[in-house]
Design a protein that fits this description.
With 327 residues, this protein is mainly β. Among the domains are: 1-55 and 245-327, no CATH class; 57-131, no CATH class. Helices cover 3% and strands 50% of the residues. The protein has one helix and 31 strands. The protein has one helix at residues 2-10, and strands at 13-16, 19-22, 30-33, 40-43, 58-59, 61-65, 68-72, 87-88, 91-92, 96-102, 108-114, 119-125, 127-129, 136-141, 144-149, 154-164, 171-177, 185-189, 194-197, 202-209, 212-217, 220-224, 230-236, 238-239, 247-252, 257-261, 267-272, 276-281, 285-290, 303-308, 318-322. The protein starts with a helix and ends in a 5-residue tail after the last strand. The model is unreliable at 1-12 (pLDDT under 50).
């Protein structure tokens, strides 16, 4: 085994969990032995780096009467606009709220209303998805998806796709345009240009995070760039999106083995030594359940830990127990 590890070092790769992962130049990744790891005193989850920061949501103010609703000014309470709706969205996202109303023949359609109560997207769509990550809104009509540009207040691409991901980083994944093969997928930009055809056999594609999108092929996850090239080959049982140049990947299913990689797929942190599984990841902290029997439904000895993984490469991951997390 020592000879194999030496050979891997000479090739600038690291053998772990049956995978050959590239090294950071001459820097060895951290291999964390969870069995012998010593953690700091227990902290409540909300005080650890593992807690996800949830942005405060911007609630609408709505008057509901007799199965109808109207948007109100949040300060004065006056009615906004002249229309009432069947459904009024509970939140503003990018200064618009979803509103739905019956149309001809009484099917309920949805659109968008701004903070003045003005309709900026007609209430004719089967589904409308607004994301804080982009001013491009996903719209569905007659079982086909398209896109609406909030900034320009116009339809960017008429509904024509069988499936779409919401825009992020000015990029989106779409499948099955018009009468074309519904299995064919593309990456497009916010102008609607097709940038690249996604490789055949890809079963699922996520949103773009830091220039890369998760993609599933033959039951394994990897990462594609906007040119649909495999920057990190599909080799993982599971994977998170990238956050702060780090992603968490599951290398083995039974027993579970997890690792942290960078944007080039190079190993940063490897976890071993005790049964474990990932509970949460926010780009800075990795929440783990450690010491659980793999096939049992109840784990009386389970321990929850928070690992700080966003530090420099020469700094060992810090560990803190999560208070009150025992089952």
């Amino acid at each position: 085994m020592a000879v194999l590890q030496l050979a891997c070092r000479l090739m600038s790769v690291f053998l772990w969990g049956g995978l050959l992962l590239p090294l950071h130049g001459n820097a060895e990744p951290w291999v964390v032995d969870l069995k012998s790891q010593r953690c700091a005193s227990a902290l409540p989850l909300e005080r650890s780096v593992c807690v996800s920061k949830i942005a405060q949501r911007d609630e609408t103010r709505v008057d509901r009467r007799n199965d109808q609703c109207r948007f109100l000014d949040k300060a004065s309470g006056r009615v906004l606009g002249s229309r009432s709706y069947r459904q009024c969205g509970a939140y503003y996202t990018r200064n618009v709220a979803i509103a739905c109303a019956p149309g001809p023949g009484n099917p309920v359609g949805c659109g968008l209303v701004d903070r003045k109560g003005d309709v900026i997207l007609p209430t004719i769509y089967q589904d409308v998805r607004v994301s804080q990550d982009s001013s491009i809104v996903s719209i569905k009509l007659s079982d086909k998806w398209g896109f609406f540009d909030l900034d320009a207040r116009k339809v960017l691409l008429a509904p024509q796709f069988a499936r779409v991901n919401d825009f992020r980083e000015d990029l989106a994944y779409v499948e099955g345009a018009g009468d074309e093969d519904n299995d064919q997928g593309w990456f497009i930009n916010r102008e609607g240009d097709r940038l690249a055809v996604v490789p055949p056999g890809v079963q699922s594609v996520g949103q773009f995070h830091e220039g890369l999108a998760r993609a599933l092929v033959a039951g394994r996850w990897g990462f594609l760039n906007s040119r649909a090239q495999w920057v990190i080959p599909a080799q993982f049982v599971d994977a998170t999106d990238f956050d702060r140049a780090r992603a968490v990947v599951k290398v083995a299913r039974k027993p579970e083995q997890w690792a942290v990689i960078d944007l080039q797929g190079r190993g940063v942190i490897f976890l071993e030594g005790a049964p474990h599984r990932m509970l949460g990841w926010n780009g800075e902290g990795l929440e783990l359940e450690v010491g659980c029997a793999a096939d049992e439904g109840v784990h009386p000895t389970c321990e929850k830990r928070c690992l700080t993984v966003a530090g420099p490469l020469n700094q060992a991951p810090a560990c803190a127990l999560i208070k009150g997390a025992e089952n």
